[in-house]
Design brief:
With 276 residues, this protein is an alpha/beta fold. The protein has 2 domains: 3-203, Rossmann fold (3-Layer(aba) Sandwich); 213-273, rRNA adenine dimethylase, C-terminal domain (Helicase, Ruva Protein, domain 3, Orthogonal Bundle). Helix content is 38%, strand content 18%. It is built from 11 helices and 9 strands. It has helices spanning 3-10, 26-36, 53-60, 76-84, 121-135, 149-156, 166-174, 213-225, 231-234, 241-247, 261-273, and strands at 22-23, 43-47, 65-70, 90-94, 110-115, 143-148, 175-183, 188-189, 196-203. The strands form 2 sheets. A 7-stranded mixed sheet has the order 4-3-2-5-6-9-7, with helices on both faces. Strands 1-8 form a two-stranded antiparallel sheet. α5 (121-135) links the parallel β5 and β6. The chain is elongated, with a radius of gyration of 21 Å.
Length: 276
């Protein structure tokens, strides 16, 4: 059933307060499924399925199981109807995805495929990156996620790019990132004022370089908090920045956006080892 038919049948519409924009173009839904890869041997987690346009195709891909987390109770009857049309084990969790421990909801191998609500997309990603850091690469086989284009560009950005920042470094430290494709506003009901982008993340077997995550986050916050300043100045509030930079063999006159992920990890190690 088409998205428009589902919305009409159940007298439903999007709630702006929940960041809802429903994907109505089935060709794009199919592209998302293809980007996610073979799901037949995966337990799939979907966040914010809404009226189920992506859910229908996920079920049609015959994963081992599908678990959806939906905050808006209006859509629970719609999703229940979908479960009756497919043999794939399908369960719906009613609740806020930010409060869910996803690894507890499905067995490994598990993968996330989701058109994320714009207003919680970044906090959700940060939560799942923490899962990867705590539990290792096996916690998720992959994450195929839709973001606002500007957020996706921050995630995949390389050094010497204006979009490169804290989110870029942490994500790329833990995952291999793939920029998928853009989605125009007219593919949604209602049409947002922005372009969306689908990306795919595959957790690395181990982080790109050794580093204590807390130390790395402290360094990133200071360095990118004053990104126009030289590292010597941006990091001075943390202590002996010149010593860490010298030991890391990083020119103190460089700026944060010029450092690679590996260089930030080296700097974080020196920060953790050197007393202030």
């Amino acid at each position: 059933m088409s998205l428009q038919a589902i919305l009409s049948k159940h007298h439903l519409s999007a709630h702006k307060s929940l960041g809802q924009n429903f994907l109505a173009d089935n060709n794009i839904v199919q592209k998302i499924i293809r980007l996610a890869g073979d799901l037949s041997d995966k337990n799939v987690l979907e966040i914010g399925p809404g009226p189920g346009s992506l859910t229908q195709e996920l079920l049609a891909a015959h994963p081992l199981s599908l678990t959806a987390v939906e905050r808006d109770e209006r859509f629970l009857p719609v999703l229940q109807e979908l479960s009756e049309d497919h043999q794939t084990p399908f369960s719906v969790i009613s609740g806020d995805a930010l409060k869910q421990n996803l690894p507890e909801l499905a067995n490994a191998p598990r993968t996330i495929v989701a058109n994320l609500p714009y207003n919680v997309a970044t906090p959700l990603l940060i939560r799942w990156l923490e899962d990867i850091h705590q539990h290792g690469a096996g916690v998720y086989s992959s994450l195929t996620l839709m973001f606002q284009k500007e957020v996706a560009e921050r995630i995949v950005a390389a050094p010497d790019c204006r979009d490169y920042g804290r989110l870029s470094v942490i994500t790329q430290w833990l995952c291999e990132v793939q920029y998928g494709f853009d989605i125009p506003p007219q593919a949604f009901i209602p049409a947002p004022k922005i372009t969306s982008t689908v990306i795919r993340l595959v957790p690395r077997p181990s982080p790109l370089a050794p580093a204590d995550k807390k130390s790395l986050e402290i360094i990133l916050a200071a360095a990118f908090g004053q990104r126009r300043k030289m590292l010597r100045s941006a990091l001075k509030t943390l202590g002996n920045a010149d010593i860490w930079l010298e030991r890391a063999q990083i020119d103190p006159t460089r700026r944060a956006e010029t450092l690679s992920v590996t260089e930030f990890c080296t700097l974080a190690r020196e920060f953790a080892q050197c007393p202030n």
